[in-house]
Each structure stands twice: as C-alpha cells, then as structure tokens.
Write a structure and sequence with these properties.
Elements lengths: L25 E7 L4 E4 L3 E4 L4 E7 L3 E8 L2 E2 L5 E4 L6 E9 L3 E7 L3 E3 L4 E9 L9 E6 L2 E7 L4 E6 L5 E9 L8 E2 L3 E6 L3
Parallel strand pairs: 1-8, 10-17
Antiparallel strand pairs: 1-3, 2-4, 4-7, 5-6, 5-8, 9-11, 11-14, 12-13, 12-15, 15-16, 15-17
Length: 196
C-alpha cells in the first residue's frame, strides 16, 4: 500500500507475508517570539493526544500585555497549556515596559535614644499613569533590613526602638508589582544615642 493510503486489495492466490508499520501523528506548535520577553520552550513537535505547556516570561522591567493562541487572545497569562493536541497550533505574546515609580522616606525624628521609638514613612508614587502601586517596602539600615512592610494606599511605615548609638543611613526599597517597577529612596539620616 502507498504510505498515505492505508487501504489495499490483495488477491490471495499464493502464500503472502503481510505486515503493516504504524507511526503516531505529530503536530507542530509554532512559537513567535517578541521583544522584551520570552516564550519557552520554542517551536515544539507534539505527539497526537499529548499536552504541552509554555511559560511566558517578561524581561526585567516589563510585563505581559497579551498572549495569542491560534490568533485568539487568552489574556496576560504567564503560562499556557495545549491539551490533547490533535492539530497544529501557534502561540505568541506581547510585552510592555512597567511604569516607573519613585520612593521617598521621612523620619518622625532625626535623633532618638536607644529604646525610644522612631517611625519611618515611605511614600511611593508612580511617575506616569493612574496606577496605584501595591507590594511591599523594605526599610534598610545601611545594608541591614529593619523590616518589610505592606504598601497601604501609597505608604508604608516602620516603627523601631532598636537604633544603636551612632549615625544611621535609612532607606526604603519598594518591591515593585505587576504594573510598576521597584525603586529605592534617597537616604534619611537618623542618629541613635545610647541610653543612660
């Protein structure tokens, strides 16, 4: 029989050895890559009936805008799985830069005695757009984290009574979120005095 024609007619007028060879159908999933992000794996051949997952990863500072499967939007997803594949498919994604943020820090006092409290307030603003930032702010004493606090509204606060004697350089580090890039404040100086 011809490879693409499984049917044949044999006149049984002698002894015959009849054999058939089979191979599973395979299908192509074609990936279209775009700037500022990656779909992985790349182009893939999938056996009929199998499933294949893809991860959509934006570059640092970017976000997924949309993912198209067979030219139809499935939203700004971070992964997609083709299940029970029985045809060829395509997948592509588009990416966009996140909004820039700015973080400022203020202290309730410029100096304090060890054991007394001082409160640091971080304010995060978005330099363009109308997005309200979410995420967390980590308050740093030099290279040492003091605490990580949630951003509520556009502010996060840290209250501590553990500043030792001497000068301290306090900064606020905003984590960023799905819409906004992270940012770090300028330093806020604070002086701790040893108690007596």
């Amino acid at each position: 029989a011809a490879p693409n024609n499984p049917n044949t007619t044999i006149t049984m007028n002698d002894d015959y050895d009849i054999r058939a060879n089979f191979a599973i159908n395979t299908f192509n999933i074609t990936v279209t890559q775009a700037a500022h992000g990656t779909i992985s794996p790349d182009d893939t051949v999938v056996n009929c009936g199998d499933s294949q997952s893809f991860n959509i990863t934006p570059d640092t500072g970017y976000k997924v805008i949309d993912v198209l499967v067979d030219s139809v939007s499935v939203g700004a997803v971070s992964n997609y799985t083709f299940t029970n594949v029985t045809a060829n498919h395509t997948i592509s994604a588009s990416f966009k830069t996140k909004l820039a943020s700015q973080t400022r820090i203020a202290a309730s006092a410029s100096s304090t005695t060890y054991g007394k409290t001082v409160t640091f307030t971080a304010t995060v603003s978005v330099r363009s757009g109308t997005i309200s930032p979410t995420g967390t702010v980590t308050f740093m004493d030099g290279a040492t984290p003091i605490s990580t606090e949630p951003l509520i509204g556009n502010k996060a606060t840290c209250t501590t009574n553990l500043l030792a004697g001497g000068s301290h350089t306090i900064t606020a580090v905003y984590s960023g979120d799905n819409e906004c890039n992270g940012s770090t404040s300028s330093a806020s100086g604070a002086r701790g005095r040893s108690g007596w």
